[in-house]
UniProtKB/TrEMBL annotation, chain B:
Membrane association type: Multi-pass membrane protein
Chief location category: membrane
Similarity comment: Belongs to the binding-protein-dependent transport system permease family.
Cellular compartment(s): Cell inner membrane; Cell membrane
Sequence intervals crossing the membrane: 14-33, 70-95, 101-125, 137-155, 194-216, 236-256
Domain ABC transmembrane type-1 intervals: 66-256
GO cellular component: plasma membrane
Keyword terms: Cell inner membrane, Cell membrane, Membrane, Transmembrane, Transmembrane helix, Transport
Keyword Magnesium: no
Gene Ontology annotations of biological process type: transmembrane transport
Originating organism: Ectopseudomonas oleovorans (Pseudomonas oleovorans)
Protein name (record): ABC transporter permease
Length: 328, 264
């Protein structure tokens, strides 16, 4: 029995459909990521779950109760926004306590719970500061604390890391995941960053054009993309049409093919190819090679400088049969 | 450092001080004149006295005019606030597309010169279903339209600086009703724009003469009309009036600045 059960949800603005017939089941305590390019409907779907945007039809069952007719104030759902949405006129303490004030929690208990949750996000020393005195990462931790303090049934995170710089983003995402695990909080995270989705999620729901393309754990989505879109969006798949794939592999292939760049190796006696260019991604070197008139990306672990192949050099490629995935 | 660069700060300062002097000179002259016993055939006044101020502030007619000006301004601003705040909230929160229409509407009072619009207002309100010409009501309504653009612009800028939609959404999800969210979250963040626009409009309206004189005149004598009616009186007396008016507006401006600063 799933905890959150979304059934046949659809939404359109006028004649423009935002998403159609969305079905998702989420078990209690799971961390789900809605992943997709901007405009795919993932943020609107999240807002519909929160009740901030009305749906046109379908059900959102949380613990058996349909949330669709319930006002957002009564849904008992916590949400963190990309813009932090902290109240500028209130201190960190007042921001976090706001939800408890609305619930009329007695002051003594409220201040105890605020202190606890500020401890959890490591901001106990900042309780009396105003949001404009905090960095972006600190603001987002306050927003997280504010949504956690009311002990919501469901936590929604709407691209909470997108406005932060890379180093803080990595640190904060680990902190969010650790807190989520500790509290066993069912969480839906929205992002357009495939790396974030792969690192964080128990399960990823990949969306495109208002529909769910594929849903599964990170492993499945990465190694077995359902279609060309999934292959293009996750990882840096080489996508070849049937004709190019047949030419490259020397065998008749009837559909489009996706090959992961790290599944192609430099090995003697394989397909003749020439290095066009290369770029260093840190621990990985990404080569752009041309083989039989097909351009491919090849990722090789950066072991030592001696292994580096130079631009224009002739190489030979080996592609394992299991790495070649036919996609629709 | 070249000599030209060395000299320039001094030169720039000189220009600024000179400008200040030119701007302040009439005011200083009025101040001295209002404090002098008589100042006609001599270079310097023959003596100093507060008697003009005493005469002014003990004149019942002046005090009544002062009170009327205050009342009309405050009523107009209260009306403006009462209408603009909900209007702005609705436009920005529910119908952001209306912002363009509002911007045009709000600039209309600027497009018509006061003399022209007051003639129109006189015709419109002299008779008919709402014969309020010559009463303070027409002045309150008219001042409301003058204050509207100032207040609308200042508060809109303020609203756009805060992320209204996300703040409201966050407050809703934390259990606040729209009213509570508006009062606890949105309104406190509009304080700065509110203060600035209210004091700005007040200073402007308090000295407004064209509408006050043409629409109401002596039938409901406001401060500016009183000053105008006193023009044949002693110059020392009217100078005291001008300085009193100026100091009052200065005080308001200073108060506005103070109220704005203490938050940060």
């Amino acid at each position: 029995m799933s905890y959150l059960n979304i059934r046949g949800l659809h939404k359109s603005y006028g004649a423009t459909p935002i998403f159609t017939d969305i079905n998702i089941e989420i078990a209690q305590g799971q961390f789900i990521t809605l992943l997709g390019p901007s405009g795919c409907g993932k943020s609107t779907l999240l807002r519909c779950i929160a009740g901030l945007t009305a749906v046109d039809g379908g059900q959102i069952l949380l613990g058996g109760e349909d949330l669709v007719p319930v006002a957002p104030q009564k849904r008992d759902i916590g949400m963190v926004f990309q813009s932090y949405a902290l109240f500028p006129n209130m201190t960190v303490q007042q921001n976090v306590a706001f939800g408890l004030r609305m619930q009329k929690v007695p002051a003594a208990e409220a201040s105890k719970r605020v202190a606890e949750v500020l401890e959890l996000v490591e901001l106990s020393d900042y309780a009396d500061r105003y949001p404009q005195q905090l960095s972006g990462g600190q603001c987002q931790r306050v927003a997280l604390a504010r949504s956690l303090v009311t002990r919501p049934r469901l936590l929604l995170l709407d691209e909470p890391l997108s406005a932060l710089d890379a180093r803080i983003r990595k640190h904060l995402r680990e902190q969010i995941r650790a807190i989520q695990r500790e509290l066993g909080l069912t969480t839906i995270f929205v992002t357009h960053d495939q790396e974030e989705a792969l690192v964080l999620s128990d399960r990823i729901v990949l969306m495109n054009g208002g529909q769910i393309v594929q849903s599964g754990d990170a492993e499945t989505l990465y190694t077995a993309p359902a279609d060309a879109f999934a292959a293009g969006f996750i990882g840096n798949y080489n996508l070849l049409d049937a004709e190019a794939a047949s030419r490259l592999l020397g065998q008749q292939i009837g559909s489009r093919v996706a090959i992961r760049p790290e599944a192609i190796h430099f090995a003697d006696g394989g397909i003749e190819a020439q290095i066009r260019s290369h770029s260093l991604l840190g621990n990985v070197i990404r080569y752009r090679v041309e083989a039989r008139g097909v351009e491919l990306l090849v990722d090789v672990l950066n072991r030592s400088a001696a292994d580096l192949h130079h631009d224009g050099q002739s190489v030979s490629l080996a592609i394992g049969a299991d790495a070649i995935r036919e996609v629709a | 450092m070249s000599p030209a660069e060395k000299r320039s700060p001094l030169f720039h300062q000189l220009v600024v001080y000179l400008l200040f002097l030119i701007l302040l000179l009439p005011l200083l002259g009025t101040l001295v004149y209002s404090l002098s016993t008589s100042w006609s055939a001599t270079i310097l006044p023959s003596g100093f006295t507060f008697k003009w101020y005493v005469a002014l502030w003990s004149d019942a007619r002046f005090l009544a005019a002062f009170g009327r000006s205050l009342l009309v301004c405050i009523a107009a601003l209260a009306l403006a606030l009462l209408l603009i705040l909900p209007l702005l909230f609705v436009v920005n929160y529910h119908f952001p597309k209306l912002d363009g229409v509002m911007n045009v509407l709000i600039l209309l009072p600027f497009a018509i010169p006061p003399v022209v619009s007051s003639v129109g207002l006189m015709q419109l309100f002299a008779s008919g279903p709402l014969p309020i010409l010559g009463t303070p009501w027409i002045l309150i309504g008219c001042y409301f339209t003058i204050a509207l653009p100032f207040m609308y612009r200042a508060i809109t800028n303020n609203l756009q600086a805060i992320n209204l939609r996300d703040l409201m959404d966050a407050a809703h999800l934390l259990g606040a009703s729209t009213w509570r969210a508006a009062f606890m979250v949105v309104l406190p963040n509009l304080r700065k724009g509110l203060m600035v626009s209210v004091f700005l409009s007040f200073s402007f309206l308090f000295g407004e003469f064209v509408f006050a004189n043409l629409l109401v005149g002596s039938r409901y004598e406001t401060l500016q009309v009183y000053l105008y009616n006193m023009r044949n009186d002693s110059g020392h007396f009217t100078s005291a009036l001008v300085i009193s008016y100026f100091l009052f507006v200065l005080l308001m401006t200073w108060a506005a600045n103070r109220l704005n600063k203490d938050k940060s």
